[in-house]
Design a protein that fits this description.
Blueprint: E1 7-9, E2 17-19, H1 27-45, E3 58-60, E4 69-71, E5 82-93, E6 96-104, E7 119-122, H2 129-141, H3 145-151, E8 153-163, E9 175-187, E10 200-207, H4 208-216, H5 222-234, H6 246-253
Parallel strand pairs: 5-9
Antiparallel strand pairs: 1-2, 3-4, 5-6, 5-7, 6-10, 8-9
């Protein structure tokens, strides 16, 4: 990382990076500006060839004592917790539960062509998880704002720690902790989902068995597979009676992350 003069690196054995305070009257603005300048320089020098283009999409740094954010495409470089909101949309049919599963756009930089939860997105800075669900539901699935606000149900969180691979689209081998806020939405059998934008290639209505089989085949985006697995557990599809690793699965879906998620 091409650290600028705004940062100070401590010597081994305790490696630390400190942001040097220069303007005590507006410390928050300085933090955000220093991080932006650092990333601009990294792009200029092509330090991380797979960093991607600069986008006006910032993610909060959880645990900070004031509002400070970092560009989404660069957050993995710093190992901070990624924050997302995911919603499974399901149908009760005479033959059992079915789930609406989108296939991600084939040209997407991250996990292109893989299966996903019906609605999913990163929770931006100064955005609440449910507001993210409402926004993404309209943008990606064409769901009516009122329906989502009245009928979507919060069902907990999923925590994970992922190592990025070639499919992730950015630098390979980065440690990516994540916290996902999960929601369920039940719709009628007459509901039909159509592609709204290039983020989705197609929507599929799957039985629970078909969804499970597609997970076994490795066709899902990893984080979304965890949210789907959590759905199986909560709806009694995966139980202690039919899965020997049930206790281990349930505990790992609630992985405790070794970083603060709120100011201490």
């Amino acid at each position: 990382m091409p650290w600028t003069r705004d940062f100070r690196l401590s010597e081994p054995p305790r490696r630390e990076i400190h942001l040097i305070p220069r303007n005590a009257n507006d410390w928050e603005a300085q933090c955000n500006h220093s991080i932006d300048s650092l990333l601009d320089l990294a792009r200029e020098k092509k330090t991380f060839p797979r960093l991607g283009k600069k986008r006006d999409e910032k993610m909060p740094i959880l645990g900070a004592r004031f509002d400070v954010a970092i560009e989404r495409s660069a957050s993995s470089l710093f190992g901070i917790i990624g924050r997302g909101a995911h919603m499974n949309v399901y149908v009760r049919s005479p033959s059992g539960l079915k789930i609406w599963v989108p296939q991600r756009g084939l040209q997407k930089a991250t996990y292109g062509g893989m299966l996903d939860n019906c609605v999913a997105g990163g929770v931006a800075a100064e955005e609440m998880p449910f507001d993210c669900i409402v926004r993404e539901a309209e943008e990606e699935a064409g769901l009516d704002d009122r329906v989502v606000r009245e009928q979507a149900k919060p069902v907990g969180t999923v925590g994970y720690f992922n190592v990025s691979d070639e499919k992730a689209g950015g630098e390979v081998g980065l440690m990516n902790p994540g916290l996902l806020y999960c929601y369920d939405l039940e719709v009628g059998e007459d509901a039909v989902f159509k592609v709204v934008d290039d983020d989705v290639h197609a929507f599929h209505l799957m039985t629970m068995e078909e969804a499970m089989e597609s997970m076994r085949e490795g066709r899902w985006k990893p984080a979304s597979a965890l949210v789907m697995l959590d759905f199986f557990v909560r709806h009694g599809i995966v139980t202690a009676e039919n899965e020997n690793d049930y206790a281990e699965i349930v505990s790992r879906l609630r992985r405790r992350l070794p970083f603060p998620t709120r100011p201490s």
